[in-house]
Description:
two-stranded antiparallel ribbon, mainly alpha, 4 strands, about 75% helix
Amino acid sequence: MSVGGGKRTWQLHAVLLALWFAASFGVVFFARDLQFEVLGWPWSYWFVAQGAVGVFIAIVIVFAWRSNRADPVASAAPAHQVPTYYHRRFAAYVAGLLLLLGVLAVAEQYGLSRPWMAGIFLSATLVLYAGIGVYARTAEASEYYVAGRRIPAVYNGMATAADWMSAASFISLAGGLYLQGFSGTAEMPGGFAYILGWTGGFCLVALLVVPYLRKLQLYTVPDYFAARYGGRWPRMIAALATVLVSFVYVVAQIYGVGLITSRLTGMHFEIGILLGLGGVLVCSFLGGMRAVTWTQVTQYVIIMLAFMVPVSWLAYKQVGNPLAPVAFGQQIGAITEMESKLLRSSSEQEVRDEYLRRADELALRLQDVDAALQAQRKDLRERLQRVGDGRADEATASALRRELASLPKDVSAARERWKQEMLDYRERAQPLGGMPRTVQAFAGDPEGDASEQAQFNTSRLNFLALVLCLMVGTAGLPHLLTRFYTTASVAETRRSVAWSLVFIALLYVSAPALAVLVKYEVMVHLAGQSFDQLPSWVVQWSRDPSLLWVSDVNDDKVLQYAEIRVGADLLMLASPEIGGLPYVVAVLVAAGGLAAALSTADGLLLTIGNALAHDVYFEGESSRAQAMRRVMWSKFALLVVALIAAYVAAQRPAGILYLVSASFSLAGAAFVPAMVMGIFWKKASRLGAVWGMLVGLGVTVYYMAVNSLAVRAWLGLEGNGLWFGIQPVSAGVFGVASGMLVTWLVSLRYPDQPENS
C-alpha cells in the first residue's frame, strides 16, 4: 500500500530539498571561511542566526502554494474560510490579557506586593487553561484525538508553535547561545545547531511527512504504521517508541514547570511541579486535542509577549532600537573586542591560575581519597575545637560545623564529588571561563597543529550531526505530527506548517539577540565592578548557584568575568531584572515560561495516553462504544503517566536542553526511516519496517547508554566509546542511518506478499 497518492511534483521536491540542504549544511560547513562582514555582521553568524530561518520559511511557503495549486482536490475546493467569531474571541482574549497586565502594572506602582502580583497572574492563567479544558470537555473520539479536524490553519499554526516552543526553547535556548556561542565546544556541540535544527526540520515535515499522513484520516502516528504496513508489530513498536520518546520529552517539560512555578510562587520545587501539573491535566484530561489546541493558542500569546518585551527593552536600552533581531548586530563587534581584552587581562589570569591551583589540589586528593578525607575531617575538628576553646564568635563555629557536615560521607562519595569539582575548576581555568568566543565557528584551528586541526574537525562534525538529529527528529516527533491531523484538509495542513514556522521563527530569531544583549550587559556593567556595588538582581539570583554563581576567587574585592558562572536557565528568567523592568514583567516572563512548558507537556501527555489506549490496548477497534472506551482509557493512561513523569522530573535527572535533544535522536531513529520510505517507496515491507525501527532505536539507545558516565563506571569501561567522536546527544545519526539501511535490505530480501502490498 502506498500512501503518497496524487501527482507528486518530484521536481519541486528536489529543488526545495537541495535548497534546504545548502542552507542547513552547505553554509555551515564553510562557516569558518565566511567571516567577511556585511553591514557590521559577520556573514556566517548572521546566516545561521537569521538568514537560514528565512530560507526555511520560504521553502515551506513555496511548497504549500505550489502543491495546493497542483493538487486537483485542493484547487477545486473553495478556500477554507475562518469563522469570524474565532477572530473576535482571539482579539478579546489578547485585549483582556493586556488589560490585566496594565492593571497589575498600575497596582505595582501603588504598592501591591510581589507575592500578590505573582499569585494573581499565575492563578488567572491557570484558571484560563482549566476553563478551556472544562468548556471543551468531550468523550467523542474525533474531538478528543484530532479536535474534529476543523482547526483553521492559522490557529493550528499558533497552537503548533506553542506546542513546539517548549521549556527548552523559552527557558534554555538563549542561555545555551550565551554559553556556547556559535557552535559550542568540541565536547558539547550546541549554539546555533538548535536554531537550525528546530526550524529546518519543518522543511522535512512539510515536504516529506504530514501531507501524506493527513490524507489517511489518522488519529495517531502508530495508526500510520498499521495503515501502511498492516499487522500487529509495526503498530505496537511505533506505539511503544511513541511512549519512550514522549516520556523523555515530557520529563524535561515538567522539570521546567517545577522550576518556573517555584520561582513564581516561592514554593518548593516539588510542590511547583504538582501545581503546574494540575493545569496540564485539566486541559488534556477533559478535552483532549480539542481543549489542548485552544489552550495552546492562548499560551502562544503569553509566550511571545513574555519573550519579546524584555528583549525589545534591552535592545532599546543599549542601541536605541526595540527591534532586537535587527539591532543586536551592533553589539557583536563590541563583545568581540571585549573578549580580546579579557584574554589579555592580568586580573583574569590571576583568577584562572587560582582555579588551576584548586584543580591540582583536588587531583592530589584523588591519589589517596581515604587519607585525604580523613585528614580533612581531622583538620576541621581540630579547628572547631580551637574555636570553642578560644570562645570565638558563634558565626565562625557555625561555618566550621556546616563545612564538617558537608564533607562526603564515604570514600566513594568523596571520589565522585572531588572528581567533578576538579573537572569544573579545570574548565573554569580556561580562557573566558571555558566558553567559546561568541562568533567563533567551531573549536580548534584548521590551520593550527595536528591537535588543533583534529579538534576543529571533530567540533564541526558534532555540530553538523546535532543539526541533522534535530531536523530528522522534528520530522518524527509524534506529538508534533498529530497536531497536523486537526486541520480540515491536506491543503490546510500544508498552510498550517507554513504558519507554524512563521510563528516559531519570531522567537527563534530573537533568542540570539537576547544572548548577545545579556552578554554585553554582563561584560560592561557587571565584570569589573566592586562586590559592594553589584546590582540587586545578582544577589537575588545567586541564591541558587546552578543559575548564577559569583565569588571573589582572587580576593581583590572586584568581580572578574571569570568569577561569574551563569546557568543556561538564567538568561530568560532574569532578563527583566537585568534590564531594570518593573516586577510585573518578571511575572509575565515566568508565566511565559510556565505556558511554554505546559503547552508542550499537554501535547506530550495526550500523545502518550492515546498511544497506550488507542494503539497498544485496543489496537484501533472502531465501533462507537469501543471508541468511547478508548477515550476513557486514554484519560486514565494520561493521568498515570503524568504522575510517573512528575516523580522522575522531581529527581532532576538531567538538564532541560539535553533531555529534549535526546528525545529528538530517539524520534528520528525510531520513526523517520520506516515512515518516509513507506511513503515514497512502494517496496518497503512490513518486516523491513519492523526491523528498521528496532535496529534504529536500539542503536540509538545503546550509543547513549554506553557513553553515559554512570554506565561506563558501572561496567568498568575506560576512555570513551564514541564513534568518530560523535557525542551521545547526536546518537540519532547512527540510529537513522542503520534504520534506513536495515529497512531497505530486509524489504528487498523479504518483500510483502501481494495481498499486503
